[in-house]
Write a structure and sequence with these properties.
- The radius of gyration is 20 Å and the shape is globular.
- The protein has 15 helices and no strands.
- Helix content is 47%, strand content 0%.
- It is mostly helical.
- It has one domain: Glycosyltransferase (Alpha/alpha barrel).
Amino acid sequence: MNKKPTGFGPTLELNYPSPSRSVPPIGIAILMLLSSLCMAAEPVPTISKDVSGIDYAAPYPEYSSQDAAGAFNVELAAQFIDGAAVKWGKKYGCVTCHTNGHYLMVPPKLFKDRPAAQQVRNFAESWIDSWDHGGLPTNSKGYVETEIVVAPAAFLAINNMQMDGKLRPATRNALDKAWELQSEHGHWADWLKCEWPPFEQDDHYGVSLMTIAMGMAPASYTSVEPARTGISRMLTYLTSHEAEEVHHRAMMLWASKYYDELISDQTRQAWIDELLALQKVSGGWASGDLGNWRQRAPETGGYKHLDPDFVDREYPPVMVDANGDGYGTGFVLYALLQAGVPASHSQIQKGISWLKRNQHADGKWFTNSLRNEFDTSNFLTHTGTTFALMVLSEAM
């Protein structure tokens, strides 16, 4: 049974300062968000229409927690993730969860008229259309890359419903192929599991992500085959498999906004309380607390894999970003809002304050990789920045 979206209660009690200068007509939603969330003493940033000047051939920078701190600026964050998402498609020619995939979920209040948002969607649709001619993406062994089919289908479905209120042809095409790959048990058994949490770690993420997407999709699509059977299988999978990690439970809370049969009211409250209890004194949440994961240990004498059998006991692994990080804070806040916790809740406001204090000068909210190797790129920073913007838009 579909569950109607839960109300969020009172909005944040924030002052709406008058802009210190005239602002171009970029939309009431943008103006309200920027004026309510940005520092009153700062001029209201405008929306840039230019997505040129990106060096697509250059490698992504090595994001670090030591990168320069910056003042809170929504537009700068949007520019950062615009560039990262557009560049990924140009540079690597695919849709990946941590960058241009989650970017497709960006809030329409901020991104509906941004050229980069249109460009990323156009790329994803063209890439999907190419499957009809060149076949589905395969790995080096010739097997279909399941997650490269399923995740873009889900991301595009969420994008379409937020931006247009209906599923576009390329999205339906991708969804049809995703259902063909689904097992009778409801999951996608060949989902990539390369110890790169939280997206490429186990089968749960793909199922919960697609469940959220179908919860947002129109009944004209979900009530007929093959979606009807696919959804039924996913709900069976999620209710019959334990949500082992905190991240699993947060995804289930989000999905239960649309399918209330996923969890009982008692379980919902227990999981909400669990997430709230993980908030740091700083107001943020740490990604490493959301699963049986560890982030990088201090580097001593070269790179070390953090598998317990190989860790040098003289230098035990320690959590980084113990006071919170971009993905942990953004994702948990968004999951709590979707679960019905009002934006006025003191811990939600404390988390938003963390976001306002911890943005970097280039616009990002940093997140250290959850892959247990030193030489891993911190691309979870991209997803964390996207979720931070989703939270700020949701909490208006």
